[in-house]
Amino acid sequence: xxxxxxxxxxxxxxxxIVGSWRWLWGLPVEAGGKVAVAVAEESLQSMxxxxxQLARAVAMQVGAYERAKxxxxxxxxxxxxxxxxAQLALSSGHEDAARLxxxxxVQIETLLPTLxxxxxxxxxxxxxSKDKLNRERIKLEQYKSDMQNMKDLAEVNxxxxxxxxxxSDFDIGSxxxxxxxxxxxxxxAT
Length: 190
Fold this sequence. Notes:
- By secondary structure, this protein is an all-alpha fold.
- Helices cover 93% and strands 0% of the residues.
- It has 5 helices and no strands.
- The protein has helices at 2-9, 11-24, 33-92, 95-170, 172-189.
- Helix 1 crosses helix 2 and helix 3 (33-92) runs antiparallel to helix 4.
- The two termini are 71 Å apart.
- The relative contact order is 0.08.
């Protein structure tokens, strides 16, 4: 699969895609600190965008829930108003007006349980979405911390690599041993 992705996308893009996939699944990314950091940064950016989209979706859900809750409250108030109107009309002797107000009150009364159930269901969805958003934000912060640690580790690895290169290029240990051998030869010769 890896070779197919490399063939299809090219070496560098393929490495980034495969590395991103492995990193998202928690598998080790290929060796090479710069590639691993680039893959992690790209994946982190993608995760940030996903969390932002989720936040927008949750905000829309909260808005819809608030509208539904407001509509339910409005209907509850209407019910009380019609009941009061019916009692007032009945006590004033206006039976037709009392009957009309009671008819409206009964219509709203039959609608309220359905509205209440829908509002409660919307509340469950909104609560679940908010919980998911909070979990995703926490994961994102953990990944940001992991990303910073990965950058620091790559930086230290690069420093150690340059130190090792200097040591191998100048091989200080062999220069000392050559100097010691030369000084031993000079002592023996004298």
